[in-house]
Design goal:
Elements (H helix, E strand, L loop, with lengths): L2 E2 L3 E5 L2 E4 L7 E2 L10 E4 L2 E4 L4 E2 L1 E6 L13 E6 L13 H4 L10 E2 L2 H10 L4 E4 L8 H14 L2 E6 L5 H7 L5 E5 L5 H7 L6 H12 L3 E8 L7 H15 L5 E5 L14 H13 L5 E4 L9 E2 L6 E6 L2 E5 L19
Parallel strand pairs: 9-11, 11-12, 12-13, 13-14, 14-15, 15-16
Antiparallel strand pairs: 1-6, 2-3, 3-4, 5-6, 7-10, 8-9, 17-18, 18-19
Helix pairs in contact: 2-3, 7-8
Length: about 350
């Protein structure tokens, strides 16, 4: 569905500047910006994907991955088309690397219908995921307002490249901010997201924490891209000193996709070293992802090391947390738990 964008400025000669993501594309009449989802039609910027859903499913929150916000809870998860990055190894490239043109494989779901689906299927929240939710701003704001009124939680699974203005519009209605920190150098972000700097991503993530959102960070450790120990140490140190040691960091295993199909999956010792780096930097909760059955999928008390939550992939095998506390030492476990 085509709908006028809510965050852009007219520049004259019918050019417009989109202010939704940090690219701030300047678009001539009749053209779209980098993400291909916003069209300048006669000097007015329109979203081409409002309510257009390419993927919808009901998932446990662990699939985001988010481990410290009502573990085991069900979430209605939706995605659309396009992205403001072009990550060469994107696992959802079929929808995220959409190059514009006629919409294929989508169905229109209104915000009201979205809320009805979540309630009908016993979900506690709505997650905008699969592709970048920032470029779905108008739709996610409308949906998030309704979700908040209905008592549902909300979640962005994002690359964090949203502008401050756009973030301030969605922030009052977001509960969980699950952000990718893909590396800790301009070189890495140039290779992955095709952007020249990443400091703006860090600033927005800091704002999310300041807004009281539940924040968890994911780094997909990709051979030859961001597996350098110095870079991983930079991420871990930044999380600890800026977001706080209680902030979960997920270091996940890369599997070959798209332009990176020639690479091998991340070696397990590299992931385990990343886990050690996080702990050495003082993070309380570091997790390995995409390694089914590994003990580092589990949650251990940061104070006494008691096993609190045992997991297998996205399934909760055992949850021993009582009233938000470790049953062994009684300390509060950061996050929200039933």
């Amino acid at each position: 569905m085509k709908k006028e964008a809510i965050l852009y400025e007219k520049l004259g000669d019918k050019k417009v500047r989109c202010n939704v993501c940090q690219r701030r594309c300047v678009t001539p009449e009749g053209k779209t910006g980098w993400c291909m989802t916003r069209l300048n039609d006669g000097g007015t910027l329109y979203s081409l994907i409002y309510g257009e859903v390419s993927s919808i499913s009901i998932n446990p929150i662990e699939k985001k991955p988010v481990f410290h916000f009502y573990p085991g809870s069900r979430w209605l998860s939706l995605g659309s088309l396009g992205c403001n990055f072009r990550c060469p190894g994107c696992q959802n490239w079929e929808i995220a690397h959409w190059k514009g043109g006629r919409l294929k494989g989508t169905e229109y779901i209104s915000p009201e219908e979205e809320i009805e689906l979540a309630v009908k299927h016993g979900c506690i929240g709505i997650s905008w995921t699969f592709n970048e939710p920032t470029i779905w701003l108008e739709y996610t704001i409308d949906s998030a307002r309704l979700a908040r009124a209905q008592g549902l939680y909300t979640n962005y699974v994002t690359n964090g490249f949203i502008t401050e203005e756009a973030f301030d519009m969605i922030a009052p209605f977001l509960d969980v901010y699950r952000v990718d920190i893909k590396g800790f150098s301009d070189r890495t972000y140039l290779k992955t997201g095709h952007i020249k700097g990443f400091k703006g991503i860090l600033e927005i993530t800091k704002k999310a924490k300041g807004h009281g959102m539940h924040v968890e960070v994911v780094t997909n450790v990709t051979p030859g891209f961001n597996d350098d120990e110095t870079e991983l140490q930079g991420i871990a140190s930044w999380i600890k000193n800026t977001l706080g040691p209680e902030t979960p960091w997920h270091v996940t295993r890369f599997f070959p996709h798209l332009e990176l199909s020639h690479l091998s999956p991340t070696p397990l010792p590299v992931l385990e070293r990343a886990w050690s780096i996080g702990k050495e930097e003082g993070l309380w909760y570091v997790y390995l992802g995409n390694v089914p059955g590994h003990k580092r999928e589990n949650t251990y008390c940061h104070n006494c090391s008691e096993l609190l939550i045992e997991r297998y992939v996205f399934e909760i095998i055992k949850n021993k947390i009582k009233d938000g506390r470790c049953p062994e030492c009684g300390i509060m476990v950061p996050g929200r738990f039933r």
